[in-house]
Amino acid sequence: MLLRVGAAFDPRRDVAPWLSEQTPAAELGDCNADTLSKNLETLHIVNVERNGNIVYTWKGNQRHTHIGLYDLSSRKNEHLYTFEKDLHVTSCSVNNEKTLLAASFLQSIKEERVPLFQPVSKSLTLLIEINPVNNVTVLKAVDSCVRVQFLYPVAETNTCSENCLLLISEDKYVEKVDIRVVKGGHKVVIESSNDLRREKIVDDLIWAQWDMLEQRLFYIVLKESRETLNCIQFYPDKNFKLILEAPLDISLADIELILVNLDYDQEMIPKPLNLQVFTNETGCLCICYSFALSPGELSYSVSFLHKGYSKMYTVALERTDSLEVKDLAFLNLDYYIAVYLPGHFLHLLNTRHPDLTCYNFFLTGEDAEINGLHSSSILSPLKSMVLDRSTGRMFTLEISKPAVLQFLWNSKLDSERLAALHCVLLHIGSTVDLETQVIQWISDNMSACLAFDPIQEFIVGSLYWRMCPEAINLDKLLPYTSLQCWNELVPGIICKTHIISLPVLKVQNCKGFWGKLSSSLECVKYAEPCLHFNSKVLRKEWDKLLSDERTEERMATYMKNIFENAKQVLHNLNTWNTEEKRVPFFQDDDYQQQLLTGLMVAQLKEHLVRHLQYVGKKKIDQIAVDYVSKLLDLICWIMESVWKKYSLSSWVLAFGQQGSSDETAVFRIMCQILQAAKGMCLPLPPGFCTLHIGLGVRCLPSHTFLHYIDHGVLHLTDMCVLKLLKELDDTEKNTKLKLSVLTRLPKAIGHKVGQQWNHSASSNNTARNYVKLLLEKLRNKKHKLRVMDRLSAETEFLPLRYLVNMLAEAEHQGWMEQNNVNARFVEELALKHTTVLLGL
Questions:
Q1: Average pLDDT taken over every residue of the chain
Q2: Is the peptide bond preceding residue 132 cis, with omega within 30 degrees of 0?
Q3: According to a count of CB atoms within 10 Å of the terminal CB, is the N or C end of the chain lower?
Q4: Per residue in 797-821, pLDDT tens?
Q5: How far apart are CA 365 and CA 491, in angstroms?
Q6: What are phi and psi of 581, to 5 degrees?
Q7: Quick check: 233 pLDDT over 80?
Q8: Sheet strands side by side (includes 493-499)
């Protein structure tokens, strides 16, 4: 099962032993285990406070109604108050200092209605001093139910002389009560119970949800004939502000008041509307809404308000017997929203990157089970926690790391593999152990993935996780995936995307969650379609740089800056590289890879400077260098893991030996790494291409080796060619191979490297290249040399003599400068080669 459930609170485990200890001897009488069990059956949870404390009620042997509290951190119980009557408590809340208790209740209809408090009404809401037990104040005496909730400005706050209490009435209004207390010795009493400051903060609401952890009240009102989602944020200084207005595209007409996370009453009849709001600390704001059940299918919608669009999902159901809309549950797992229909499916929706459906889990069968939770009776009072109101048990809910990895190995579809990879790399977070297991999976499943490159996804995802904490809004500027789009369907589900109205923030210069939401909305409103650093831009500049390099049009300062960037990256890479260093990297300097490394740093700096307005240049420079350094470090780590898997030695490979089957397997993986880097225009660590060539020489036939070079699978470097020339003897087969490699070298290094091979084939190749280059220059300059009248009297080999004189004339005009090669050298070499061919 993908979701791991842990029992955070179990009444039989956490309360029953304490209840048996607390039962007075006079009340105990002939009480036995059965009686205590019956008392335990009356226990039900009435609230879960921000600090995790659980408020519950139970009935004693004399049917007195007791209120207790379970501290989730210390795992201890505490008795708060006792009503000497059989009451139906509908709502209860205790302040952070445990000095005040607010409770709403209905008196039992079985009892004679003898008034204990005046005036007598169907529902009473009381404010009680409990430290010590003292005065009782009636806050409400009405016929409609009232939910009570103390505000917790910050977790574990210091004692405060003023408390705030929310009263949420089924008459569709919300009221705030300010309560000042006076401390005297060990007593805490209300300063003036007859003069409490009351303030109505919401009126005519039709739906409300209390965010206990962040102290926010989401509610829906009808504004200009359109349902609007509003949010009030309560602050530590007891102030509150209306901070959000978001028009909705759904109709909530003719419904009773719906209270989410404010209704812990087991006996309340489930409402037909299933709508919830979810947030997370990165600024995501989502509205989940389920539609009426159609025959054979179920539809639900998620509005990603921080992205400006909604997605409606339709799931085909195999059976619809005894299925009701209320059976569908929405659960907040922070990075994901879980949509759960027991016995049918579990859909985990990615809230931070909802654009591509391939990053969502859609599970059926055993994978979709959550330890038998009954969705019709569960409630999510806190993030990643679930309360089963039918049993009173509370569970923690999280994605299981081993289960995700197992799911990755067992998946047959690319969409499932992508969802698992994304979850491991970006949600669970990359660690050495996790990365090793993912690399193991990649090395065994490279050919199985058709719709994406697993190496690209691993590199980009791991970099995103590592770098995003470095600066605010960096998550919007760095790529999180190698994919540009995903057009394939996810089996079992249909998704339709709709543009929605953006929410309006009523407060400027917000911080925390609201500041991040504001930043996301600004990106949707005014920014470019995609802010993420794009490899296409880098590739365009890379191609331009190579072209400019050939024509020598680039400024020297620009090139100097690029190589300085590369120098900083390589310095970082040497410090971050693994201690074992099995792979023989860093043996040479690859000019082109250094150029690409420095260029990527320069391009990333420009991209970040455009969008990170409040980050200094020095910090941006460091982020860019770190990003590329960690990119190369990841590739090194992949190679280290692969090298270790196949038990290859750390010594430098000898070109003259035949490669093993393990080396062939590593060579193929390096081909995949090179292809992945080429696809995203990513640099490679120093020595990668040299090592790749070395494995290619050992593992491939000569013609295949040359074919790989011609098609860009293998990239020649100075060092690898020099090693090949020195380590391979000059047999006829090796001579042909060496000469074939020399002819494939770039012009810039071909002559320099060719001089290191003392062989006639090398001299012939050098002379041919010299003549070819000189003739190209003559053709490009369109200059006619007058050499016929300067021919020597020796005409025994007139074509060669004409060519030599033409070359000499070009040299005289300074068109060609090449050490150790001139027209005389060409003449001597041509005559010598001719005599050899003629057998003279």
A1: 82
A2: yes
A3: C
A4: 445 555 565 556 555 555 455 555 5
A5: 14
A6: 50, 55
A7: yes
A8: 275-279, 285-290, 297-304, 309-316, 493-499
Name the strand (E) or helix (H) holding 505: strand 504-505
pLDDT tops 70 at residue 270: no
| Per-residue exposure over 304-317, b if at least 16 CB sit within 10 Å of its own CB, e if not | bbbbbbbbbbebeb
Q: Is 95 helix (H, G, I), strand (E, B) or coil?
A: coil
- Tell me which residue of 666, 693, 674 sits closest to 587, measured CA to CA: 693
Q: How many contiguous H segments (helices) and E segments (strands) does the chain have? A: 22, 32
d(CA 319, CA 802): 92
* DSSP helix/strand/coil, 297: strand
The whole-angstrom separation of Cα 463 and Cα 719 is: 30
How far is the C-alpha of 98 from the C-alpha of 449, rounded, in Å?
A: 57
- Which residues are within 8 A (CB) of 166 and not within 5 positions of it... i.e. 6 or more apart? 147, 148, 149, 150, 151, 174, 175, 176, 177, 210, 217
- Check residue 237 and report its DSSP letter: T
Q: Which amino acid, residue 220?
A: I
How many Cβ atoms are within 10 Å of 833's Cβ, its own excluded?
A: 14
Q: H or E segment at 312? A: strand 309-316
User: Which pLDDT score is estimated for 837?
Assistant: 52
H/E stretch holding 443 reads: helix 432-445
Q: Which structure tokens are listed for 495? A: 């998704």
CA torsion sign for 514, 520, 523, 525 is negative
Provide the pLDDT confidence category of residue 574 given band limits of 50, 70 and 90.
Answer: low
User: In degrees rounded to 5, what are phi and psi of residue 241?
Assistant: -140, 140
Whole-number Å distance between alpha carbons of 689 and 715: 6
Q: List CB contacts of 251: < 8 A, sequence separation 6 or more.
A: 227
Token readout for 130 is 């409990």
Which has the closest alpha carbon to 728: 671, 653, 670? Answer: 653
Instruction: Using DSSP, state whether 136 is helix, strand or coil.
Output: strand
DSSP annotation of 114? -
High-pLDDT (> 70) share of the chain, %: 78
Beta-ladder partners of 219: 208, 230
Residue type for 523, please? Answer: C
Helical pair 718-727 and 732-743, crossing angle rounded to 10 deg: 160
pLDDT tens digits, residue range 418-473? Answer: 999 999 999 987 678 888 899 999 999 988 899 999 999 999 999 999 999 888 88
Name the token pair of 192.
């003036």
**According to the model, what pLDDT value does residue 579 have?**
55
Q: Residue 442: its pLDDT value, please?
A: 94
Structure tokens given for 3 = 């979701």
For residue 455, count other CB atoms closer than 10 A to its CB: 27
Higher per-residue pLDDT: 688 or 767: 688
How many whole angstroms separate alpha carbon 357 and alpha carbon 418?
Answer: 10
Tokens representing 119? 């005036």
pLDDT in tens, 504-526: 999 888 889 999 999 999 989 87
Q: Kindly report the backbone phi and psi dihedral angles of residue 739, in degrees, each rounded to the nearest multiple of 5, phi listed first.
A: -65, -40
Say what the alpha-carbon torsion angle 742, 743, 748, 751 is, to the nearest 10 degrees: 60
Quote the radius of gyration of the chain (alpha carbons, Å).
38
Query: Which residue bears the tokens 């195999």?
Result: 318
